[in-house]
Amino acid sequence: MKNSEPFVLKLVDKCVKPFLSKDLNYSHIREMLRLKLIMDSRRVSLVLQNNGKKIGKEPKKSMLLTCLVYMGLGIFIASMQVMPNMFGANTISFAMLIFMLFSVYISEYSAVLLDTTEKSFYGALPIGKNEISTAKNIHIAYYIGTIAAAMMLPSMIVGFISKGILYGLAFTLVSIVIVVVCLHLAGVIYYLLLKIFSGEKLKDILSGFQIFMTIAIVLSYQIVPRVISIAGFSKGQITYSPFYFLLPSAWFSAVLESLFGAGGLWYIYVLAGITVPAVILLEVLYKKKVMPEFEGELDKLTETAKENKTLSPFSKLMCKLLSKDEQENAFMKLVLIQVSRNRDMKLKLYPQLANVFILPIIMVLPQITGEKGLAGFIENLREGRWGLALLYFTGLTSASIYMIIGQTENAESIMFYQILPIENLSKCIRAGVKVVLFRYLTPIFVALSALLLGVYGFVAIPDVILAYLSFIFVTGFIIRISAWMLPFSYESDAASAGNNLLMFFISLFVFAAFGWVHIFWLKTLGLQLIGIAVMILANLVLWKFFMNKKYTIARG
């Protein structure tokens, strides 16, 4: 039995246990962590479980894919280690690490941190809240740390080879500290929200906070390339900017620069001096205040209020217009109601929707903040057709959004489909896809289209129609090939972050191809009308045949 334990437990025994408080019961923490890891290894599609397919290796494959995807990103980061500008290279590298860690944490693991379902089980046992909180944080740290290790391993190897053993060790240590700081800073922020708010207002605040943090993280990431001089970067020169003091990545980079760089710059030593007390202050706050009280504050999320979750007139009209099939129509309403009631699902869904809105902003931000400003940006937009690319960005996270709707925490939810009087369950999947397409993504597409029509005028209406038809086709096609599952039928997998990132890159490639053809080849009204006719036909074929393929599960 001892030999069958997950390897990570042995790692925790040697690397984490010595740093835990003596007041904590480590045997309880270890047992909870063991149960969490065992449950993670069994989180697979309930449909696959029901059909009796071989699923033992699916979670391991998911984790391996996650590591490979982030390691691919890490190879790009590692290329900066050979640059002569150590401070600039590490500022960008650490900024990418912080950006990815916070993005993954908010979209994938904040729901784990705020989960209250397991308290009903552990609350009946003689286990303290501190032990529950510690086990939960170690569980999250395992997955976040694995992603960080995959990202930074190439940089560590290049650092050891190009700059020596001492630099490699220091770079590794700083990377570990950054991971810990990100985890604990996120914990402090959520603790403050739990401390200040309560009841239903707290749940609404948390949902809004997810959106705000997603936008803030993405926009703050755009500061880095504007702070570091690209011309000086390639020559190994460091150009001072007061924005360095606002960038945590610059703080940690200054530590390495002060130890292994040329030195002599006053602000490098000031930045390095800020880092040490800031980290110590955060750790003291986290250990003395957040850890002992977090689980107690989390009880506020279990407070119930009178449910008033009815569909809006817009949602009812949408369901009526999008499907004449009564069964599919009813299931669309069911999906909308379930999403509106599921707090954990909204905590994952809203950051993805925020990404849909923020990605076009990232694309145009360099133009707006350039020398000509907003007026120059609008002028450039009118002179070219590249603004249409903004519309194609709307579907980049569509597959990830649908996978969120496909998740469930109830292992018995498959029984609902077993007793459902619908022979072809593809109706249920189509209903979920339509909810994603028309309830969540279309309003964002319409908002962006209105902005473009304000710039181009009504002459761009054929372009907008063509882009929308392409958006529906590509989004439906990508979901069909990568996320074809019943809504609420897949147990959430803690190691699925790599799958989402991989689907993002696939979507980026496909949408870029469609957008390139549209922008550079379909410039005249005649060609645009032909394109519209082709995309109408393509959508009819997709939704009539491929999206209607018979989908069944074992019953009884």
CA-to-CA gap between the ends? 34 Å
Which percent bin holds the helix content? Answer: over 70%
Mean pLDDT: 82
| Sequence of secondary-structure elements | HHHHHHHHHHHHHHHHHHHEHHHEHH
Strand content: under 5%
**What does the main sheet amount to?**
2 strands, parallel
**Uncertain regions: pLDDT < 50 for 5+ in a row?**
45-56
Quick tags:
mainly alpha; globular
Give a verbal description of the structure.
This protein is an all-alpha fold and 556 residues long. It contains 24 helices and 2 strands. The chain has helices at residues 7-15, 26-41, 46-51, 58-78, 86-113, 119-122, 129-163, 165-196, 199-221, 224-227, 230-235, 248-260, 266-298, 313-322, 326-341, 343-368, 373-383, 389-392, 398-405, 414-419, 426-456, 461-482, 497-521, 525-544, and strands spanning 407-408, 490-491. It has a two-stranded parallel ribbon. The longest helix is centred in the first third of the chain and has 35 residues, at 129-163. The model is unreliable at 45-56 (pLDDT under 50).
Write the layout of secondary structure elements.
Layout: H1 7-15, H2 26-41, H3 46-51, H4 58-78, H5 86-113, H6 119-122, H7 129-163, H8 165-196, H9 199-221, H10 224-227, H11 230-235, H12 248-260, H13 266-298, H14 313-322, H15 326-341, H16 343-368, H17 373-383, H18 389-392, H19 398-405, E1 407-408, H20 414-419, H21 426-456, H22 461-482, E2 490-491, H23 497-521, H24 525-544
Parallel strand pairs: 1-2
